[in-house]
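Subject: sequence -> structure tokens, single chain

Hey, anyone have a minute? Need the predicted structure for the following. Not urgent.
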Amino acid sequence: MVCEDIWDAAPAWQARKAGAEVLLVINASPYEVGKQWQREHEIGRARVGEAGIPLVFVNLIGGQDELVFDGNSFVMSAQGEVTMRAPAFTEGMYVVDLAAEGSGAVAPLPGAVAPLQGQEESVYGALVQGTRDYVDKHRFPGVVLGLSGGVDSALTLCIAVDALARIECIRCPCRRASPLR
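Reply:
Had a minute. Here:
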């Protein structure tokens, strides 16, 4: 299955009817707050419940202009249990092992299940990922930040430091912001 096929019951059922033993979903689902919970609990469980077979959901990771993709690939058993989840915003090779049960049905073997991120952590991860990929993909030599000393400047600097190694800061204090120390 590709991308939006997962959001509708028909493609999963057609795959099962054609003899599929596992639903493999290749996806580029953009990041949204709470989207991983929706992918797993609402959509994934609905499809495995309808088709009665496991699901392997492989999602893109990275920033592409105004879109950010969080990864968060996962594997779900035919019973709707997450048996493996890759960490959000972390590129890597995550191996999924499948085995035939005594009944002949295919089942995913348990793997590492990364915890779901909380809202603040996931938003911060998306900001870091988007910043890193925007700068790198446009081949900018680095970034220059004007810092006023306010909270917004401090947060912007934190995101830049976590995303990049090439940062130049310029102190731009104003009367309304507290001085940098």
